[in-house]
TrEMBL record:
The keyword Protease does not apply. It comes from Flagellimonas profundi. Keywords: Endonuclease, Hydrolase, Nuclease. One of its GO terms (molecular function) is endonuclease activity. The keyword Hydrolase applies. Pfam families: McrBC (PF10117). InterPro entries: McrC (IPR019292), PDDEXK-like_dom_sf (IPR011604). This is Restriction endonuclease.
Length: 406
């Protein structure tokens, strides 16, 4: 019988050590060893190993090690340490940036205890696969190598001699079959198998088994990135795109080789720096203001093969503004010399009048733009409150535009 899942919630940049209990759940040495191996596989970017523990970085999300759920949540500073609030903030950011599809976040999961990001992704995937089954799964031509009773396709001579020395009536061939055992379904089948392992003992397990019963039998494939490079979308399989994208997230974050004993691991982690930049960009792009154009990921050649790229470029009529987002708590309004030099260069190369270093905060502080010495271009630090009425502030784009254009 499977033991119930236990959960530990931590915040980014927090340190936990094995042998101690958090929220009544013990963090074991086996959990530490599994995290250390996972971190090594990903070039030590997720956290830093310390004496008997790990210190988390700006990566947030969820890690499941056996029956332990480890939630890593974002947080601006120590003024508010509510795991429920910051989990809602993270989910809303993922939903806004289209990394997660959740409707009615406040109500849809209220009745489900111990819900976490993996459960949400699992349920999203299962719903997508159910929809595909209901509308009818596609069939495709694919190659199959096996023993058959009639000669068709290409005879694999060496294997034919080896396998059919006694059975003269059989032929070992590679031939085409029209059916459901093709790459798209093999990928979805692998994701279903992973979900069944990690949802055992939860409300999603029975739903997963029901979907598996309705799903056709397919060949088992090994999880590796090359699986997805072979996918080509067309009119026939375009309905599969969402399900396959979720399957990619699940499969490529599944680490069967990272284990302690028999504990397998699934990690779903996001860099808050990238998520914050994307969230601000989307909120600015959603503004319906005449003459406003918002551009992300714009780069220019700086020197030789070196390019520079500010996070966000804003064009308002004939004026240009530059924004660089920073997901961290800044104690004062004085940015680093490196950041100021960077903003100076951005102003020069994009012909910008104002550059803004944008930080999240628990209270809004309107920026005071000051010119660079002997220059007309200005720069400032802006702190914007991202929490409003115990949820993620949705209209911060208006504040940012008003800062820059007034």
């Amino acid at each position: 019988m499977n033991s119930p899942r236990q959960k530990i919630s931590v915040f980014e940049h927090q340190t936990i050590t094995y042998g101690k209990s958090y929220f009544g759940v013990k963090f074991k040495e086996s959990h530490f060893n599994a995290l250390a191996k996972l971190n090594e596989l990903h070039d030590n970017k997720y956290f830093t190993l310390v004496h008997k523990g790990v210190k988390f970085s700006s990566y947030v999300g969820v890690i499941q090690i056996g029956d332990l759920i480890l939630e890593v949540l974002p947080k601006i500073d120590r003024s508010e340490e509510s795991p429920v609030l910051w989990k809602d903030v993270l989910i809303e950011m993922l939903r806004t940036t289209r990394k997660l599809k959740v409707n009615n976040i406040g109500n849809a999961f209220v009745a489900k205890q111990h819900i976490h990001l993996l459960d949400i992704y699992f349920e999203w995937f299962l719903n997508e696969v159910q929809a595909l089954i209901h509308q009818g799964l596609i069939k495709k031509y694919y190659k199959q190598t096996s023993n058959v009773k009639a000669l068709k396709g290409k005879l694999e001579f060496a294997n034919h001699i080896q396998k059919n020395l006694v059975h003269k009536e059989r032929f070992y061939t590679t031939h085409q079959i029209y059916g459901t055992n093709h790459l798209e379904h093999q990928i979805l089948g692998l994701a279903l198998k992973i979900i069944a392992q990690f949802s055992n003992g939860t409300y999603l397990y029975s739903k997963c088994k029901t979907v598996q019963l309705d799903f056709p039998e397919v060949d088992l494939v090994k999880p590796h990135p090359g699986l997805f490079s072979k996918l080509v979308y067309n009119r026939k399989n375009k309905a599969y795109k969402t399900a396959l994208e979720i399957a990619r997230i699940i499969i490529l974050n599944f680490a069967p080789s990272v284990s302690s004993g028999n504990e397998k691991m699934l990690a779903l982690l996001f860099d808050m720096n990238d998520l914050w930049e994307e969230y601000v960009l989307i909120k600015l792009k959603s503004l319906k203001i005449e003459g406003l154009k918002v551009i992300g990921q714009s780069s220019k050649r700086f020197w030789h093969n070196v390019s520079i790229r500010p996070d966000i470029i804003i064009q308002k009529n004939d004026e240009v503004f530059v924004i660089d987002t920073k997901w961290k708590h800044i104690q004062s309004n004085k940015p680093s010399t490196h950041d100021l030099r960077q903003m100076f260069v951005y102003n020069r190369y994009w012909g910008s009048y104002r550059a803004l270093l944008l930080y999240p905060s628990n209270r809004t502080e309107k920026p005071s733009f000051m010119p660079f010495e002997e220059e007309q271009q200005e720069c400032a630090v802006g702190k914007i409150n991202i929490i409003e009425n115990d949820s993620l502030k949705s209209n911060l784009g208006f504040d940012i535009i008003n800062w820059l254009t007034k």
